[in-house]
Design brief:
Ubiquitin-like (UB roll); six-stranded mixed sheet; binds FE2/S2 (inorganic) cluster; 29% helix; 610 residues; alpha/beta; seven-stranded mixed sheet; single chain
Length: 610
Amino acid sequence: MSVAVLFEPVGTAVEVEPGRTLLEAARDAEISLGATCGGRGTCGKCQVRVLEGPLPPATAKERGALSEGALSEGWRLACQYEVTAAVKAEAFLVRSRAKGEAPPFERGFAFAPPVQRRLVEVPPPRLDQPTSDFGNLSSALSLDGGSQPRTVDFQVARELSEMLRAAEWKVVATLRGDELIGVRPSLNARISLGLAVDLGTTNIAAYLYRMDDASLLGVFSAPNPLSAYGADIISRLAYSSLSMDNRMELQHVLTKAVNILAGHATREQGCDVEDIDEMVVVGNSGMHHLFLGLPGHQLTRAPFVAALDMAVSVKARELGIGIARGGYVYMPPLVGGFVGSDLLAVALATRIDQRRGARLALDIGTNTELLLSVDGVLYCCSTASGPALEGSALRFGTVASPGSIDAVWSGAPKAAFECTTIDRRPATGICGSGIIDLLACLVRSGLVSRTGRLVSDSPLVLPDPAGNHHFVVAQAASTALGEDLTISQDEIRSLQLAKGAIRAGIDTLLAVHGLGVKDLDEFLVAGTFGNHLHVESAVAIGLYPDIPRDRIRQIGNAAGTGAVLQLLSEDERRVASELSRSITHLELSLQPGFRKCFARSQWFPEEGTS
Ligand code: FES
């Protein structure tokens, strides 16, 4: 008799025969766990947390891949877990990042948080002055010169009278503008926190801050669970457009993921999600609409309009986000088409509009966005580059983690390439920077032609009768996979499509304004992926323009920085809103030369012509 397996946060259920593994169940449910070793228990990628159901003792392989803490929290390897009874498992791995992974602010800003917690002593009401409890609290708050609440979150209002009396009239009030959004007993007061979230198509990044002194507490990331509904944003919007149930299903999956991230982030700091008073969420227009549960159909059809593009503050509970009871989620404005609040955040973080010359900022992702400043006038576009460059579309592609090949170089001509892995572990896969290096080595060594064809006369190329030859990147003995780590002709083709889409976006955006890459005074690369690429490799494959290297600058996750600025400063929110109105959006697919440019950009450049 089959048993039920439920995967969270996606909420997909499948029936499997007892004895099958959770990895097999995930495959049945079409949930990708990034299992690069194919289920041998060596890559450590298929981590899941058992929420309900039997939790067997950890196997030796699980003890090798998971910390004691993770094992005791219920984490196991899906490929080692044999299903014997109904089980609910969380397939959503939150990673805590080094604080250094929060990119530094490129400029100063005025700290002006939208929320404040203030200690206040409230005079009890008297018979000769029977003012309401809210009225008394409001007056008391005005006495210290701070802002005075004129309205109150209704759920807070329901608790206010009992709270004031139980706390003997000494409370900590949380204010957002003129709204009272929280009241706690003063003895129970904790620090006000804020969370800035960059909702990427493939990954979600979150930055936890103290709202009283703007100090960073932690940086976190997790894969975007909507990948289960399609790697690209168009597939997800198509699914959500089929019915209201579908739309709300995706919204629910996404908010559940953000809740798990927020829970992990606060737990790690010994805090509670209720300590988060404010959240800022940025993303491309598609992710923005899916997160808010807005219709996305019209985004995918000409003239590609948003349902809503201005800044909105939404009660977190209305979205299913579990932070402080009266807390808000602030969604900055969108720019146009698929260019959303993430690129606006890049514009805010860099302020390239404040410098003369031609400057281009590139935020590489599954949906790559470009921002051009010509003497301070801003233009933008987006291009569907897909997930291939980040590794998702390759059999051995993986996120950057211990064991991933992160750098590849060629020693001598015709010799096997050399590579390093993160933490010097046996190779478990290849991540974005390794993939770009590998392509550059293949092109430079002549193993891949300008058109992208893998030449078949090398001993390192495994022939395939169907023409899908494979190049051996690392032989089985040096990997943890028990087999050769390879890249195929078809995978090289998908990488060409991705890099061609980005490069065509760069060249077309410049050409529309009468510029070429040589005119660029600065080429800024934002995003986690772009930040880890080796510039020479990116130039060698034609992804980046071949301009003096001192004009190319990697600036980290500038979208995250722009989100943080809007978390910590109302002034920055105002600047971002003004910027959003000043950026002209260009629809690439409507530009006459774009198709030709895209076809040409898929080729690899001859040296010095990129
Ligand atoms: S698939 Fe489970 S460890 Fe690799």
